[in-house]
Each structure stands twice: as C-alpha cells, then as structure tokens.
TrEMBL record:
Keywords: Cytoplasmic vesicle, Fertilization, Secreted, Signal
Pfam families linked: Prolamin_like
Location relative to the cell: Cytoplasmic vesicle; Secreted
Highest taxon in the source lineage: Eukaryota
Ranges for domain Prolamin-like: 31-94
Lineage of producing organism: Eukaryota, Viridiplantae, Streptophyta, Embryophyta, Tracheophyta
Protein name, per record: Egg cell-secreted protein 1.1
C-alpha cells in the first residue's frame, strides 16, 4: 500500500506562494515576465560566453537583474548556466545599468580675427 501525501490548505506552503506567483508573496511582481524574457534571450547569453561578445540587450539584462536580485537567483542554473556564469551575467548587467554615458568633451569655438 502506498501512502498518499496530504495536501495542506496552508497558504504559506502553496505552490503559488513558493513560486512567487501572487503579488503579496513576491517582492517583484515581474518575476514570471522576466523569466519568459530570459528564456527569449538565452541565445544572447550563450554567445556572450562562447564568442566572448560583450553585448547583452537591455531587455535581457533587465530580466537577469530582476531574476537575480528579486526572484530566483538559482534560476540561471536551471537554464544550464553555472553559478559562476550566472554571477558573470549579473555583474555585467549590473555594471551596465550603473554606468553613465560618456560625456562629450567641451569644444570652445576659435576666436575669429577680422
């Protein structure tokens, strides 16, 4: 005879809460949207490591930042990235978000002599 597992009505143990699917249990209501965006940009992340191309699109970096900071940091591992690769992606995207655009040098017009 096999034992059946009891389903509890405790909301703290519900699947929706554990997966942060409802707004009350999630610090960021965009966790699932970010996960789907990350799935869409996985190719960019693979090329980032395979070819050494240091470009990840803004939406890809946004998804990585949301997932790593607010949702499920271990999610990148479930997509096939090592912890170190996840840390590299997070670091790259964090640095990209905090970098300011380069300032243009000020150019003073030459004084015209009549």
């Amino acid at each position: 005879m096999t034992d059946a597992r009891l389903v509890t009505s405790n909301p703290a143990l519900s699947l929706a809460v554990r997966l942060k699917m409802d707004v009350e249990s999630s610090s960021n209501p965009y966790c699932w949207d970010s996960l789907f965006q990350l799935q869409a940009c996985t190719g960019e992340a693979i090329i980032f490591f395979l070819n050494g191309e240091t470009y990840l699109g803004p939406s890809c970096c946004q998804a990585i930042r949301v997932i790593e900071h607010d949702c499920w940091p271990e999610m990148l591992g479930s997509l096939g990235f090592t912890t170190e690769e996840g840390d590299i992606l997070k670091g790259f995207c964090d640095a990209k978000a905090h970098s300011s655009p380069p300032t243009l040098p000020s150019i003073k017009p030459n004084k015209l002599i009549p």
